[in-house]
Every structure is written in structure tokens, then in C-alpha cells.
């Protein structure tokens, strides 16, 4: 948890960052320095803007691209907006109270401000729902590598429950997970039947179910009997979280693009850029470009999953030895 001194230091750094961004924005808009700029500041502004790391769109919004990232991030210079982003990318049902790394990744894919990683770490560590949700230590499941080569090649199925009965009479959750993209579908059920239960629970489904229970628990009321109201939001949070094994979000692997988060629905910058970049292509060229991109991503996913399986095998062996 951040100390008062640490928080004060963060606030000062953010204020200084905001002031510097105002000078950057003014220079990009007017091609001249803001009144009151000293020589040192002028040199810094010229150097920053000449590196093509900053740009302003037609609405006057400032963006930043980190070196070698290829990703434009909207610069945040308002504490109110910053708090709104933290709230929507962690606490909101569609964010699902994901961990520090997942929350940081979701934010930095879209936004930038000075000290964002430290602030996310502090924010998540102070989240009351996350603090009350204790992790249960269990034996690591035995890994059985499953070879999948494309989306929907193999889908895992499992049933969670019985859970506290909701006002609509639901007591179970049917989970379906695509092994390649990690795309998740969640369905509330009033009764369980053999048709809804998988005979064997693979490690992928095990992790999805564990995460699902944890996130529902953080969002539900004290009686835990309104979980069916949050299923779709939690499913969205699972689909839009980058997976350690694939290094991509399930949403991207399923639709070949990143999702628009609820907080982004009033902003169209990224979509405009994407549309403009392909507007010169005809249908055949676009199809070929898209197919090439899909093949490249799928190849990368298979490489990432292979490396992840090997790393998890080593980790599970160590954890089980420690538990014994």
C-alpha cells in the first residue's frame, strides 16, 4: 500500500507530466513554443516532437507512441479521467477485478500517463474486493498438453455449481472454452444434466473456472445470489484479458482486432485510424492482407503456447514438490 509520502510524490510527478504535455500539445498545434518556455524546455519539446512519438488528431487529442511499440496511446492529463480509467479497467464488472499485470496491460494498450504502472499496482493492492478475496492454495493440476491448430478446433466444457440460487432460479454455470483462442462462453443453468457436463476437465478449463468463481465473488452481493447478473460482464473481462500462454487476448484471436472497452465507446480514434489504413485496398487485397495477418498471428500463438507449456511444466513440478 502506498504511503502518504509516496502518494504525494506520485501526484507531483503526474502534475509535472501534465504541464509538460501541455507544452508538447501547444507546439504541435501552433508550430511555436508556448509563452514562458525557457531554452531547456524548448529543446526538450523540439526533440520530443521531432521523434514522431507524439501526434494530435482532428479532435485535438494528444497521443504518444513508445519507441518500437507501434501502439498509439491516448495521453491522460486529468486526474478525474485517470481515476475513471482505473475504475473501468479494474473495478467495473466488464473488467472483472483482474490482477495487476492484466489491469496494467489493458490500460497501457490504450492510455498513457507518467507512472501508470506504479499507480495501477497501488490501486489494485488497495481494492477492497480483491483484498477480501483470498487465493486458495491447491496442488497444481497434472499437465496434459493438447495440440490445437486453429480457432474452435477443440472446445472444453464444464459445469460449475451448485452456487447460491439466484432470484431467477439459476444454480449452475456452464462454461465453454476454445482451447486455441481461450474464448469463453458462460451460460447460467437452473438444473444440471449429463449433456451439460464434460467427462474430463482439462487444465485450461480448470483455470477458467477458478478465475470465474473469483471474479463473480468480487462482484456479487453479500448473499452471493445475484451472480447471474454478472456472467456476461465477467465473460467479457475474460475475453479481453491477454493470456500468458498465447500473449494475445481471446477477443483478438477470435476477431482479429482488439475490443472497444465500455470506457472507449465515446471515442473513435483507433477505429478511424484502422479504417483509413485499409481504405485504399480493394476487397481482394484486403482479404489477402487479413489472411496473411491471421496466419502470422496463429503461428506466433503456437510458438507462445509451446513455450508456456514447457514453463508451466517446470513450475508445476516445483509447486507440487513444495506442497508435499
From TrEMBL:
Listed SUPFAM superfamilies: Ribonuclease H-like
Classification via Pfam families: Integrase_H2C2
GO molecular function, one term: nucleic acid binding
InterPro entries, per the entry: Gypsy_RT_Integrase-like, Integrase_H2C2, RNaseH-like_sf, RNaseH_sf
Domain Integrase zinc-binding as annotated: residue spans: 80-134
Entry-linked PANTHER family: ENDONUCLEASE-RELATED
Protein name (database record): Gypsy retrotransposon integrase-like protein 1-like 5
Native organism: Homarus americanus (American lobster)
Organism ancestry: Eukaryota, Metazoa, Ecdysozoa, Arthropoda, Crustacea
Amino acid at each position: 500500500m502506498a504511503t502518504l509520502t509516496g502518494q504525494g510524490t506520485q501526484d507531483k510527478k503526474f502534475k509535472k507530466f501534465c504541464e509538460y504535455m501541455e507544452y508538447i500539445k501547444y507546439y504541435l498545434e501552433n508550430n511555436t513554443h508556448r509563452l514562458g518556455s525557457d531554452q531547456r524546455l524548448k529543446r526538450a519539446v523540439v526533440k520530443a516532437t521531432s521523434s514522431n512519438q507524439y501526434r494530435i488528431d482532428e479532435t485535438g487529442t494528444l497521443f504518444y507512441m513508445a519507441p518500437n511499440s507501434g501502439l498509439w496511446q491516448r495521453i491522460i492529463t486529468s486526474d478525474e479521467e485517470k481515476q475513471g480509467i482505473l475504475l473501468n479497467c479494474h473495478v467495473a464488472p466488464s473488467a472483472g477485478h483482474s490482477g495487476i499485470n492484466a489491469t496494467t496491460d489493458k490500460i497501457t494498450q490504450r492510455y498513457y500517463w507518467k507512472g501508470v504502472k506504479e499507480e495501477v499496482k497501488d490501486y489494485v493492492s488497495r481494492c477492497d474486493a480483491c483484498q477480501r478475496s483470498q487465493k486458495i492454495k491447491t496442488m497444481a493440476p497434472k499437465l496434459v498438453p493438447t495440440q490445437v491448430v486453429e480457432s474452435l478446433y477443440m472446445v472444453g466444457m464444464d459445469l460449475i455449481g451448485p452456487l447460491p440460487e439466484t432470484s431467477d432460479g439459476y444454480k449452475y454455470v456452464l462454461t465453454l472454452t476454445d482451447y486455441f483462442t481461450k474464448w469463453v462462453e458462460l451460460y447460467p443453468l437452473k438444473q444440471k444434466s449429463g449433456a451439460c457436463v464434460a467427462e474430463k476437465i482439462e487444465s485450461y478449463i480448470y483455470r477458467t473456472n477458478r478465475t470465474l468463481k473469483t471474479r463473480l465473488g468480487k462482484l456479487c452481493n453479500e448473499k452471493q445470489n445475484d451472480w447471474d447478473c454478472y456472467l456476461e460482464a465477467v465473460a467479457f473481462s475474460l475475453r479481453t484479458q491477454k493470456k500468458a500462454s498465447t500473449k494475445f487476448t481471446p477477443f483478438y484471436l477470435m476477431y482479429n482486432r482488439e475490443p472497444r472497452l465500455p470506457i472507449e465507446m465515446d471515442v473513435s480514434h483507433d477505429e478511424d485510424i484502422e479504417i483509413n489504413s485499409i481504405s485504399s485496398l480493394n476487397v481482394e487485397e484486403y482479404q489477402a492482407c487479413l489472411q496473411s495477418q491471421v496466419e502470422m498471428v496463429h503461428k506466433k500463438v503456437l510458438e507462445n503456447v509451446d513455450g508456456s507449456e514447457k514453463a508451466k511444466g517446470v513450475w508445476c513440478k516445483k509447486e507440487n514438490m513444495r506442497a508435499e
